Amino acid sequence: KQEVTQIPAALSVPEGENLVLNCSFTDSAIYNLQWFRQDPGKGLTSLLLIQSSQREQTSGRLNASLDKSSGRSTLYIAASQPGDSATYLCAVELWRSQGNLIFGKGTKLSVKP
Amino acid sequence: DAMVIQNPRYQVTQFGKPVTLSCSQTLNHNVMYWYQQKSSQAPKLLFHYYDKDFNNEADTPDNFQSRRPNTSFCFLDIRSPGLGDAAMYLCATSRDRGRDEKLFFGSGTQLSVL
């Protein structure tokens, strides 16, 4: 059974810092891995999608990496801003699934001005 | 402009009283999903529609049903809500099903059961 773990559960940093969020998964037979952002009481916004054949994806100040063999992904946020404060969730799609994403519980990020 | 719209934003129901949550989309996507997210937990897929085909997850309780009368709308029916069904319910869509399709989520409906 695929399990997705995110560490730490919460993170507080001062504005301007670079930071890394971690995601690990137990079954390497994945189609892709996605990173989402969730603001309090809101839905999810897709940030980055990494296909199983790729090693990283970049969008603005965000960079996500994928190491399938070790079952790990990282989300790097450069020059953090207070507006980055949110919960970040990673999710994997399995080869044998039909659109079912397995989510982690997320890392709650707080960027202090 | 909102592309996946969920109504209502907050829903309060009584223990055992049927409740329906709604979702609409302007993306003309083939697939619509319903996820349940309990407080501080990971979202969990309940079921999805691929066009008109209903696909239930194996561990989704029978208490949860869904309807998709047309491409744009999808409903989640909870026949007899229990206290454990209090959660955020998230609707999502994707253009197609399978690898590498991005999901687009609505803002969710927060369900309280009294």
Describe what you observe in this structure.
The complex is a heterodimer of chains A (113) and B (114). Chain A contains no helices and eleven strands. Chain A is mainly β. In chain A, the strands form two sheets. In chain A, strands 2, 4, 5, 9, 10 and 11 form a six-stranded mixed sheet that branches. The mean pLDDT of chain A is 92. In chain B, the strands form two sheets. In chain B, strands 2, 4, 5, 6, 9, 10 and 11 form a seven-stranded mixed sheet that branches. In chain B, strands 1-3-8-7 form a four-stranded antiparallel sheet, with no helix packed on it. In chain B, β7 and β8 form a beta hairpin. Chain B has no helices and eleven strands. Chain B has 114 residues and is mostly beta strands.
Give the structure's gist in a few sentences:
Chain A has 113 residues and is mostly beta strands. Chain A is built from no helices and eleven strands. Chain B is an all-beta fold and 114 residues long.
User: What would you report as the Rg of chain A, rounded to the nearest angstrom?
Assistant: 13 Å
Helix content of chain B: under 10%
Binned, the helix content of chain A reads under 10%
- Quickly count the helices of chain B: 0
Q: What general form of chain A does the structure show? A: globular
Strand pairing plus helix content of chain B: what structural class? mainly beta
Query: How would a textbook summarize the main sheet of chain B?
Result: 7 strands, mixed
Q: Count every helix of chain A, treating DSSP H or I runs of 4 or more residues as helices.
A: 0
From the spread of the alpha carbons, the general shape of chain B counts as globular
- Proportion of β residues of chain B? over 45%
- The stretches of 5 or more residues of chain B where confidence is low (pLDDT under 50) are none
Report, as a whole number of angstroms, the end-to-end distance of chain B. 34 Å
Number of strands of chain B: 11
Portion in beta strands of chain A: over 45%
